[in-house]
Amino acid sequence: MLGKGVVGGGGGTKAPKPSFVSYVRPEEIHTNEKEVTEKEVTLHLLPGEQLLCEASTVLKYVQEDSCQRGIYGKLVCTDFKIAFLGDDESALDNDETQFKNKVIGENDITLHCVDQIYGVFDEKKKPLFGQLKKYPEKLIIHCKDLRVFHFGLRYTKEEEVKRIVSGIIHHTQAPKLLKRLFLFSYATAAQNNTATDPKNHTVMFDTLKDWCWELERTKGNVKYKAVSVNEGYKVSDRLPAYFVVPTPLPEEDVRCFQGRGIPIWCWSCHNGCALLKMSALPKEQDDGLLQIQKSFLDGIYKTVHRPPYEIVKTEDLSSNFLSLQDIQTAYSKFKQLFLIDNSTEFWDTDIKWFSLLESSSWLDIIRRCLKKAIEITECLEAQNMNVLLLEENASDLCCLLSSLVQVMMDPHCRTRVGFQSLVQKEWIMGGHCFLDRCNHLRQSDKEEVPVFLLFLDCVWQLAHQHPPAFDFTETYLTVLSDSLYIPIFSTFFFNSPHQKDTNMHQRQLSLPLTQSKSSPKRGFFREETDHLIKNLLGKRISKLINSSDELQDNFREFYESWHSKPTDYHGLLLPHIEGPEIKVWAQRYLRWIPEAQILGGGRVATMSKLLEMMEEVEHLQEKIDERHHSQGALPAEAPSLLRSSARLSSLFPFALLQRHSSKPVLPTSGWKALGDEDDLAKREDEFVDLGDV
């Protein structure tokens, strides 16, 4: 059995070569050079976008054909993207209905989306960095959205090769200044062209009114209050201008340590319990300051444990959960399974694919996140405990878990508007360092730490297991993950609301832009204050909660009890977390690999057939009603939304872009067992309208 077929919808079938694509082989390029230079394709630039360099007579190879054929055209680099302009672009516009990004095209790569660049020298693939002494005959670009592009430069003029290769390397790998990001150029040029969607009611949480509305919605306004003590970022540039704290907490306490060490409200449960988060206090060596911190935490302890707050369970995420290094290492291994250069490489890894998947630990990390979120949910829902999340800066794992808990417990967060508001509240206003975690400025040699992508993958697991509970599809999540690397809007390109506000308003920052590095010490409490603060806060809290064994028993009972009952899609939602239930997000990770799709298969194709049957049943019912009431002629058949010749696949809608293979690529004797390839290739399926994915 084919490994990847089980996870992503395995072996491909022969797809007809579209008639509009002009395929050529590398050796044919030279003879067609005159024809190539005569064909001009328009480069569409966004407001503020500038052309930097370009090269003609470039061959874009067809990935699924083992890079033996391709389309000739022009390769350009702007201050926003790398784009290939082939002579088939106009034909693509007339192609069957398919997914289209409104900002970037099929052959566009934003500069922030470039992961690694390789050059091929005498058939040897080498990574490219800095200044080159020798230029490659082929350029290979690995993207963060897992696309892989091959560009042949053998017949491109030498000077153009130098300019385009050097330009791409420089503008995608060299360290950048924040002000040089394209989003600033775009914002300046398009400021008079921006329009707001009146149907978009996403709560931005940038006013006191927004927080008061959220408190009222969750009925948390009895025990908690919205404060404006940080208005104008007078107290902290890490916190938002407005946020929510326990009602008895004096505003002077917020000012004491620049907002650190105070419990900040995230969300309230229907039973009155709340989810809170807290960051670490500043590291101090002075005994006098340590005593002040001790007294401060003692006051915080009294605040969060007196009625009506009572029992609080703490979750120290810095010592008892995942580290950022764990996430980084796992994803670095995981993504290599999908950055496939050609069909041969795909099948070479097939026999060991599952073992490589397991060794990456990415699915296990997803399972651990979901399990931890269920544990927190059990405390809130069943144990009637408040939960306090502790983390160094309360801006990574706190964001992830608080968001997951709300998706599970609050059906409003499973609507599109509610989900967008959740991301705005917990991630943007919560101070998640998108600029650093996505490494948008290329300031270090380290790879990105995809904490937000991990969250989206966890949400996908929930949506995949319980589709009716969500007001959006997996395509929405996939496109949202892609937007991390599109510097048009400012949502995912800053480390904090303060950094965004000061830069987007063209004001000079008074503090360094970079986030302070986390302490190498493990645990929420610093070594210097361990004997004081941990004894004060940690031990007191530990007396108020059950033992570890009891908590595990409670978790298992809560988990099994919920899954034993019919699912209420408008209420609490828990995922299955057993090993086989945690799956690979096929649409996002396998969408660019033609061999990993089933033409005419998958959920969308199944739904298409079901809708077709429902439509037929409805039409037959109309006929029966008409005859029963003797109302004359039968009504004409209503035009179906499903009638289209677009070929569906298990990776719809992205797989529609990958239909260039002219031969089956399954190199096993099991091909015949799948049925006659011509019959499979001729199978035409109906098109499902994506609606508002």
Strand residue percentage: 5-15%
**Most strands sheet:** 8 strands, antiparallel
Strand order of the largest sheet: 4-3-2-1-8-7-5-6
Count of helix runs:
25
Helix content: 25-40%
Helix-and-strand structural type: alpha+beta
Overall radius of gyration = 28 Å
Mean pLDDT: 80
Could you explain how this protein is built, in words?
- InterPro entries: MTMR12-like_C, MTMR12_PTP, Myotubularin, Myotubularin-like_Pase_dom, PH-like_dom_sf, Prot-tyrosine_phosphatase-like.
- The protein has helices spanning 3-8, 26-29, 33-38, 89-93, 158-173, 182-189, 208-217, 251-256, 287-305, 317-320, 324-335, 343-348, 353-360, 362-381, 397-409, 416-428, 434-437, 451-465, 474-482, 497-504, 530-542, 548-563, 586-589, 602-629, 677-682; strands spanning 51-61, 70-78, 81-86, 108-110, 114-121, 124-127, 138-143, 148-152, 224-227, 243-246, 264-268, 274-279, 312-316, 386-391.
- The chain is α+β, with helices and mostly antiparallel strands.
- The longest helix is centred in the last third of the chain and has 28 residues, at 602-629.
- The protein is globular, with a radius of gyration of 28 Å.
- The two termini are 33 Å apart.
- The model is unreliable at 1-22, 29-38, 90-97, 506-547, 638-646 and 657-693 (pLDDT under 50).
Tag the structure with descriptive keywords.
693 residues; Myotubularin-related protein 12; alpha+beta; cytoplasm; MTMR12-like_C; 8-stranded antiparallel beta sheet; Prot-tyrosine_phosphatase-like; 37% helix
